Records
---
Amino acid sequence: MVVPRAGLSATAVVDAALAVVDEAGLGALTLAAVAARTGVATPSLYKHVAGLAELRVLLGIRVLEDMTGRFTTAVLGRSGDDAVAALLHAYRDYVRAHPARYAAMPLDPLHDPALAAAGGKQLEVVLATLRSYGLTDSAAVHTTRCLRAVAHGFASLEASGGFGLPEDLDDTYDQLVRTVLAGLPGN
Amino acid sequence: MVVPRAGLSATAVVDAALAVVDEAGLGALTLAAVAARTGVATPSLYKHVAGLAELRVLLGIRVLEDMTGRFTTAVLGRSGDDAVAALLHAYRDYVRAHPARYAAMPLDPLHDPALAAAGGKQLEVVLATLRSYGLTDSAAVHTTRCLRAVAHGFASLEASGGFGLPEDLDDTYDQLVRTVLAGLPGN
DNA sequence: ATCTCTGGCTAACGTCATTAGCTTTTTGGC
DNA sequence: GCCAAAAAGCTAATGACGTTAGCCAGAGAT
């Protein structure tokens, strides 16, 4: 038989998985779907990825790094409240742009060795943003947690259609961001 | 054969589903597991429940109502900041007590006719709690959303082990609650 | 030219949801 | 009390999926 090779790689498999998730939601992430998209039989994926569980982890890393990149450019050249607001808006914007992808992001990256590095980098960006407030290490951690809780809470609810009433969501988020900024040192 | 009937009902099936979720997590919620727990063959469950999708909805209603009950008792006899703080703490406490169950709660109840009633009741409790601040209808909605985003964000991150560092989570939540209360009218 | 590794394949199995169709129990009307 | 019909259970079968085992072709190195 003369069948040209698909020329797959772990990266290409994750690319396909990302496309599947973007198009059909996290629930549609199945090895069968990824195989179909890459033009390969399902078991062939095991040559590049250990299984569905590992694919999910690799996808998580990808999304984590993707978000970190956006955050980094969002805070570039900003500081103080300006930077924090940019961070919060970048978070929401990312989730709005890629809701299904966001659902693929692990919420506890630090607990998986494979994800810890990517999670740590994202944490670093936030901690760096807070540095100008002169927060001590522990205080910075508490504040980072608050920022994350607020951004994740709002964004995940918005992405899953959790806000059913017609009021403008931009207004709600502005109010939330204002409240958070007011709670930072020096305000 | 003389096989006594199991005497199942939709309610009993949901009870079993809840037990499965509490013990083994939402990912373990399978008709096979529920059937095993109720001592019945898997297809027999279809006599009481239309399928896994409906079971999930019924479970969602149950959890939603359960939470609403806690919220109601939490705000009883309180008002203003005191009531809002009680609400936020009741939210977190519920999720800590039943993390897997919370994951079974739909975030967008208003979009499913079957869930809308239960979701609306929960919303009512929060809106009633905010009444003493004299917020107009639209402002009350924005504030309710903020409260929900904060509570859901923190609680879901905590429940999924999203806070990896050793700092005390009670301290973080206190800070968050304080910030939110400070953002309410009259503070 | 051959050897070996790599990346594909098919076949098979177990788990799950779901449907169809059968049997037994319960129950309501008489 | 008796009988029909509805209710509640069952087994068997199907199809999607993940996963494993084992086979085969092509590419590169020797």
---
Amino acid sequence: MAARKNASKFDLRPEARAPLSLLVSRQLRQAIVSGKVGTGTELPSEKELTQELGVGRSTVREAVRILQAQGLVSGGDTVSTKRPRVATEAALRSAAAVAIDNAMRLAQVPLDDLVELRVVLEGAAVEMAASRRDGLLSEARAAVDAMSESGIDIEQFRAADLRFHEALANSAGNAAFPLVMGVLRSAIGSHLGEALDREPDAPKAMAKLAREHGAILKAVLEGKGKRARELVTAHVRAFYRRGAQ
Amino acid sequence: MAARKNASKFDLRPEARAPLSLLVSRQLRQAIVSGKVGTGTELPSEKELTQELGVGRSTVREAVRILQAQGLVSGGDTVSTKRPRVATEAALRSAAAVAIDNAMRLAQVPLDDLVELRVVLEGAAVEMAASRRDGLLSEARAAVDAMSESGIDIEQFRAADLRFHEALANSAGNAAFPLVMGVLRSAIGSHLGEALDREPDAPKAMAKLAREHGAILKAVLEGKGKRARELVTAHVRAFYRRGAQ
DNA sequence: CTAGACCACTTGTCTGACAAGCGGTCAAGG
DNA sequence: CCTTGACCGCTTGTCAGACAAGTGGTCTAG
């Protein structure tokens, strides 16, 4: 193939045998993760990349597609003349979630195992949060308050629930936790479909969840790590048992 | 754009505004994760896909590139006429690792946080393994034995180390654990570069690691979950402290 | 000063072309 | 009969050129 016009006859490094489009995508990836081009920046147009890299447009396009699929570049999912942009962190996170989800599906990981993994992580997170009790917990407080309000609708409740768990994850003092837990949560959600919508008695269920959240937060604030872990374990298990049947 | 020649003028579903290449990739993805085409199967040639789907070759190529980047299809990373194949589980796992790695890098997650996350997971895994003590532990035994042999070289040692940790993860009785732990391990490895190669006194270090592994396994086999967790925590922390400085 | 026409540029797609490698066929030679 | 080597078709990787359609800025007429 015309992959490498100027390849030496004895160049056997596997690197050199990779398709150009892959090499180009790696080069761009490097520029992105190294921070050389900031998040949210527009990529150069395909023509510019073509000239700058000395490859054809189809090659550039394939490289960009690869980056989009990896979540490093966002914006190509709609037909328009808008240039793709360097991914935001959120986009990357959701790409990671998709990847994990793919792997879980192909490996036929049962939903229960995912939930148990989440229990382990969430338990560890609250325990760490309890031993630190840092300022980020005020956000958790606000989320619990929002959930306890009477007139809240399901969508708002769900958003507050998300904020609560994110706040706990952030309070663990470990940047990897919120990331992995977010990925895991959305992988579980994708497994579940949207089974949670058909809750028979929504207001009652929401009130119960709000109470559980309040109890967890209280334990964390009092520094009772073990207790918080038990509560969160029961909470998460019950939540998915409710939704998954 | 010529994205959808036959699009109704009033078709405003966002779905329909996505580029064809994306739609095609989603269609193929569906066929793969649903198991309609088994893992390891060869994909049809580009020409066949072109005819079957009624789109141009470049579109098909972009779609396949997307799937490759997502790890759902493997084999296109080398220049040859070999057709891409439906991904194996291992390929998917490594794609997930890349995705997590990307997210971690862009979020500037420090290495220490990754290591702590691994400590949490590995600790939970051995505790679960200790309470089950299932048959898979014989593999862990074999790995420890291999590591303890005198004439082992670094590469073999590393492979045995990997087998040991995988065996523990498998013994936890939760299919999600080995997957996530593998992803995490390789993300850490990629962060570390290959700093582990320049160990000053390799044989001594390897002997120490082998002893630690043996102690962990012993605790698991005796059902001492807490003890196993402590040992594995110290082991993982020490390992990366050694390599990371 | 604003509204609408207009134009340059961009992305998405298709088509046609060519190089290079892999696999099977098939005949010549041992 | 089996091996060996040339050969041909198919496949992938890449490029170049073409066109449709959408976006955004400019420029003119009112």
---
Amino acid sequence: MSEIGRLAGVSQSTVSRVLSGTTPVAPDKQAAVLEVIEQHNFRPNIVAQGLVHGRTFQIGVLTRHLGSPFFGEILRGIAKAMEETNYHPVFSLGSENPSEDRKALDVLLARRVDGIILQAPQAVNKMNDEFIRGLAEELPLIVIGRQIPGLEKQCVIVKNFEGAYLATSHIIAKGHRAIAHITGTLWIEDAAQRREGYTQALRDAGLEVIPELIIEGDFTEVSGAQAVDVLLSRREAFPFSAIFAGNDQMAIGARLALYHRRIGVPEDISLVGFDDLLGTQYMIPPLTTIRQPIFYMGLMATQSLLALLSGEPFHLPAFPLELVIRQSVGLR
Amino acid sequence: MSEIGRLAGVSQSTVSRVLSGTTPVAPDKQAAVLEVIEQHNFRPNIVAQGLVHGRTFQIGVLTRHLGSPFFGEILRGIAKAMEETNYHPVFSLGSENPSEDRKALDVLLARRVDGIILQAPQAVNKMNDEFIRGLAEELPLIVIGRQIPGLEKQCVIVKNFEGAYLATSHIIAKGHRAIAHITGTLWIEDAAQRREGYTQALRDAGLEVIPELIIEGDFTEVSGAQAVDVLLSRREAFPFSAIFAGNDQMAIGARLALYHRRIGVPEDISLVGFDDLLGTQYMIPPLTTIRQPIFYMGLMATQSLLALLSGEPFHLPAFPLELVIRQSVGLR
DNA sequence: TTGTAGGCGTTATCAT
DNA sequence: ATGATAACGCCTACAA
């Protein structure tokens, strides 16, 4: 920057001022400086700026699984919210291994990110509620997909229980008596809560909860397909006529497996998903699912974080769920 | 850091030395310092370290679409390669809008990333070959999915033409005469090259290339399904008995659409994909596809970049493709 | 072995 | 309006 100043015949501070625009600068010098900057296509070093300001303008996002459409949507929301700001997201991939998870967080912290978005952090070990509460005192923090007692206002959660209850009740209302459920990764709260909603709906309808009809998947399409295989292999002993999949990805996998076995949906088996993923209804119509505003969850989480950052008040809205029936489902 | 030194009764430099381990420090002082560090759980500021060293230990990754399984695999490779290093990836999302694409790159540059991985950059406007060559002179750079003349050694590409040729020839060898093709986003080289391989294989077999049988998709499942709908709607005028999908995601979409119309695969229509995506063969068996070592492409690209960074010699291996036939395809 | 001091690229506060 | 100058947090000669 001083080099630029030298070439333009001004001081380094003037260059800084031209760039920041905080203080008026004589038009001729202004022009001279911009000229030199242009020639050398100089860019101010954000890192050094950060040193001065005490911030990095980076938001850490601790996540898992970048290849999923679900996460992709959340990310779109996060990126969208930061679009016109100076902030930039930095992703760190957690894993199912708790220590790796913690290490990923440490990297973010060492980089002095200005705030953190925790995506469905594991509730074990060093990542327990207590730890996260402590973390929240050190820096602005938003948690997606997990409710931390005492930190409710900074947690983005979804009415998983209600959604699953709604979905299951809908299936029951259509006359089904034996309903299977493919869960997501159970240590992720969303999955556990959806399972609860499912079992509660069964109980409230006076139906029996059959453990053999509940298969744990991992939110991926493959696990959905595999779960169906397991269910079908037991079908003699544990018959069922409908499946409630813990998310749309598993619903897609399940649908493929059913198609493959030439089992009609919904004629032979009814299928309900969760998320209302982009395009799902096009790929596997007809589809009944629970709509979840994923994109907005990412967006709002980020906006709240930015508000936290600037000390502004904010409130995370409640994210509603909705039963969506695409085309005529014909659940029987 | 000086605060830590004060509390431990040593100078700030000694604290630095304890942390870096570059210079011996008296055991007692060492202990005292570590003690204080522990108490205040102090972490050195990587940003400030970067200022001194002139590097940020960040690798910029310009990408598009974080929600795709294909990109997820590349990313796994990138992350894996950086795992035991001090480097950390920073992602910036490009878009189909060239100016956005450029802006995403600028953010990375302003953050003074030490190196850049360009993921299938658009070959237009400011991102032309000339520009990228210039960029490569400024900082270590690896390009995935596009061949830049004069920069071949830093480009990770795949034998797309050969793979598509192989796939199409295989289908022809099974007796098909009218083969449809669903392409990926055509401004991405991979997609264009695969289309070339497809048309060349047809020509070499003396078959006619029918434009109406070539549908442009965008690598997503939905586009695969939609393409099939279009193809089927024209089937009277332009019949076909096989489909070569430009990637596995579109193959999945196509398969779903076919299943939905109760069109058997491979009895009625044969389907071949490209990528050998994780789990695909499980979800839609039997599947014939071209195997592409996606994970290793990300891994090797990153290792090469790190080598570039440290001035070590390196060579990007050729990434082979392979025709994979899962189970008995029964292409007729 | 340890402390002092200078510098990395900016911004902000002073004078001028 | 503009130029010095002091931070920001850390590393590293250099000196002791």
---
Amino acid sequence: MPKTAPNNHHDAQAKLRHILRHATRVFSEKGYEGASIRDISRATGVSLSGLYYYFESKQKLLYLIQIHAFKSILKRLERRLAGVANPEERLRILVTNHVEYFLRHPMEMKVLAREEEFLEDPYRREVAEIKRRYYEMARRMFDEMRRAGRVRRVNPRVAVLSLFGMMNWVYKWHNPRVDPRAEHLAETLANIFLEGVANGHAGRGLRPVAIGRRAPSESARAAG
Amino acid sequence: MPKTAPNNHHDAQAKLRHILRHATRVFSEKGYEGASIRDISRATGVSLSGLYYYFESKQKLLYLIQIHAFKSILKRLERRLAGVANPEERLRILVTNHVEYFLRHPMEMKVLAREEEFLEDPYRREVAEIKRRYYEMARRMFDEMRRAGRVRRVNPRVAVLSLFGMMNWVYKWHNPRVDPRAEHLAETLANIFLEGVANGHAGRGLRPVAIGRRAPSESARAAG
DNA sequence: GTATTTTTCGAACGAACGTTCGACTCGAAT
DNA sequence: ATTCGAGTCGAACGTTCGTTCGAAAAATAC
């Protein structure tokens, strides 16, 4: 047996990933309700009934996509946050991580942002829970900033959810041909937010933070 | 004839409004693709075929809803802006107008925010055009602020679209039982944005603007 | 080689979809 | 009294939907 299939377990997993990748694209293009299993069959090359060997329902398929994306974002974020204590820096890392994932996986994010309400209660709850955990991370960073006196009087829930609004809206307008790349975009959003909630007097000014192994990016340039 | 139906023209218009109202609710609850004409028939009490006397297709129905909502927002905004010259004040009015409409007509706004890509090209273009006009209004206010030197170096397109992100995301999280009412919420969002893009040194500080005939609201209170 | 398990799929299920059509009602105009 | 057009609807059109099932094929174990 010189050729194919070294081992079933690996192959089955690989095929599931293949299906998830193409299903993500189809959902992002036509929406969850607008996309049919037949569309996904066509896109993956797997027969209609063959798909059901890998997931038991269309809902479960959406659930698998969403959970996978969230876990990826959270895992990467936790790795990047390790060892960083300053809450502003931590929030900047969260924004960079979010926006970077967004622009690197636009289809996943489109599905994540739009198709949440179609999950029903076994799945819905689990996705809601992981989303809540993500929000609470940002909220904790913000509360630490407040405790350190670096934030003016502002409703913290509204502030943090507005930050998510800025970040999550990006998929509606970002055009790679004219808009800044992830790192620069993240810096701009973080600057607007942090300055927007900052205590006027105590301000240490904007302080972009480099993450990963890249050099610090140039500061935001006015364009257009 | 003491009772009903003074005139057909009026009645037909009233019935169309009745249909649009209930269709908006159905779309906002189940999504455009998830809602069936039969759902709308059930919700309005009008028979399946009877509906088609008032609109020629499901698409057209969505189009009517979206156009109506946009025109309402724009009309109200233009009335409120009349006579106000200061660009910060104008932007604050835009935010208040937007958020107020949002919270007063949550279903319309949900449909507006989510179901844009389902329109096809006769309708799509027209809705996109009115949306562009709305964006350009905000963009022009922002550019005036820049010209007056009150904005730091920041990509204006990114800044303005981030403001829309904050505003448009509200429908995903706003809970009337725990979150601020429209006017207060609008003030917080406008503060975050205006401080977020403000020139550090030239700051005249936050200056909430009362609109309509209400007294100026108290400043944002930290909660939670 | 045979037995067993894992993977694949064609064909079909009943249900629901958007839309159409012809017939009906009924008040207004003649 | 009749004509007319606006408004209404039951029934049905053809299509597509998510899902199932039994059998074939491929891979693995014996």
